[in-house]
Amino acid sequence: MPETLSLRPAALVSEFSRRFTNWKLNRYFDKPTFSFIEYNRRKWPQRKTSSEGPVVLLGLSSIPASVFCHSYLANYLADKFGGRIESYQFTGSPDQVMKEVFASFGANFTLTMGDKAEYKDEAFAIFESLQSKWDVVNLTLDGILIGDKIYDTYLRAYNLATVDLKDERLAEIILQGVTVFHTIRKYLAKTKVAALLTDDPSYINTGILARMMFAANIPIYICSWGSQLMLWKVDPQTSNSGKKFPPPALVHPYYSYRTLFARLSSEKQAAAILRARDALEKRLAGVFCPLICLPQSPYSDDTHKGTVLTGTGKPKMLVMLHDFIDSPHTHRNMLFPDFYEWLCFLLEHAERTDFDWYVKPHPFASAGGGAINEANRGVVTELKKRFQKVTWLPPTASNQQIMADGVTALFTVHGTVAHEFAYRGVPVVNAGDSPHIDYDFNIHARTVEEYAAYIANADQLKLEIDREKIEEYFYMNYFYFTDHFSAEVNLIDPALFEDIESARGLSGSEMYSLYMAGATPERERGIHKYFDLYFNELQTKQSP
Predict the structure, then answer these.
(1) For the chain, does the N or the C end have fewer beta carbons within 10 angstroms?
(2) Does an H or E element contain 78, and which?
(3) How far apart are CA 182 and CA 144, in angstroms?
(4) Interval 260-289: pLDDT, tens
(5) CA-based nearest residue to 112, from 122, 123, 125, 102
């Protein structure tokens, strides 16, 4: 008698289901994904929990490293809380393959956008009431800020630099945001969530969820899975109105850098300053810096050679641009509703002065193909025609050469140039909140009127710059958190990040094979020990 037929009816159904699933996986999924699913099934037996029990919630992601690390963390927390794991996705169509992958480590897909038709009237009424772009940015529902997420999602979805208040596509994004809000509220009313493992909260897919979880006092954790594994509990930021909310994007608590640095011993502070000084000097000398998300150093002599600022002998003012499209609201506030409005205001006032003004596009957003880069180039082309009294530099212009040509003052919103040019003695004016806000080596304009005054008097900006404070900032922004909160053992073999060229030709799913091979028992024990330490000790040290 065949082995299958010897089973009882219930077991027979279960066995048939298992074999059918395996057939389906083999038929529709590639081999690495199928192997990863089987790996998960063996490692994470399906736990039986009550529907009333606590939930560890995480977003449906397709990034193999994120999925791999979250499978371990989510199961650790589910065991810790005696609960289950659920996954969500609000925008786009959930990938059936990824739903199967997540289910294999216990994260069943349960939360998605509700019926938009139910909230169409509410969303349309909001759209019809909009009088300014600030009305979009500041949109709240029952005290939860969702407008900045709607704004950034609209820009990114349609590769636009600014909002058009008459665009019906904006009404559609508002409808999505309103529907997500109400869907989450209904979910929280019937579900006890123990923790949220977040991905990028810059857009409505996760940003609104993170705000609502925070308002409900549910802990939010970010898992960094790069060359070092690091956990981070999201701490509150304070808005202009005094309310507390989670950060708009994946940023460290830059507003508390000085407090955190002061907690270090004098010996550690001295070592930190020397380390930052070395890295910063190399960065400004043109050595490629892996800490900055750019494909090559903008300070290299190999970018754009020769004199860049060929002025008239008048004071030289430099404007450094950002990516117009990709999430302008990454910090607590801005003086302008987006980067496009910021630049238009700045250049309108700049053309009234008697200075030589230079504008350099963001090197990453202006290079290569892709719709977002083409859109950024289109914005620059448009503004070149509109503002012809300023000089538009190529995005490849060397920052090192620009410094050598002499810069009287620099204007940005929150770019890395704010500390880099300040380190060479150039006064820098930021337009609102920025990673540098806790320090006084930059000028932080607090109002639009104040900003206009800085533009008009850009040749008279007086600022005492303490280079050691810039080094302190550099250490805090790029080294402190990995130094203090990273796991000693990485779940993913660090060699994969050191020799990324060898993996560049692999497809995304093929990375699973490398991750599974690298997850040795020793590494797994080390990561489990790190989780124990983190949830019992480390996270209490993160807040100032």
Answers:
(1) N
(2) helix 64-81
(3) 11
(4) 999 999 999 999 999 999 999 998 988 777
(5) 102
CA 141-146-148 angle, to 5 degrees, is: 145
**Which residues lie closer than 8 Å to 8 by C-beta, 6 or more apart?**
none
Other CB atoms within 10 A of residue 325 CB = 25
The phi, psi pair for 428, rounded to 5°, reads: -120, 135
- The sign of the CA dihedral 414, 420, 423, 425 is negative
Q: 315-360: per-residue pLDDT in tens?
A: 999 999 999 998 899 888 999 999 999 999 999 999 999 999 999 9
Structure tokens at 233: 């509990």
* Residue-level length of the chain: 544
Single pTM value for the model: 0.89
Cα distance from N-terminal residue to C-terminal residue, the chain:
69
CA-only gyration radius of the chain, Å: 26
AA identity, residue 462: K
* H runs (alpha helix) in 255-370: 257-262, 266-284, 339-350
- Which amino acid makes up residue 403? M
Q: Which two tokens stand for residue 515?
A: 């991750």
CB 359 within 8 A of CB 393: yes
Locate all alpha helices (DSSP H) within 387-447, ordered by sequence: 399-405, 417-423
Q: Which of 2, 190, 67, 136 is nearest to 515 (CA)?
A: 67
Cβ distance 156 to 327 under 8 Å?
yes
Q: Cβ-count burial of 54 within 10 angstroms (0-12 exposed, 13-18 middle, 19+ buried)?
A: buried
Tokens 């799913």 locate to 509
Tokens of residue 385, six digits:
């025609």
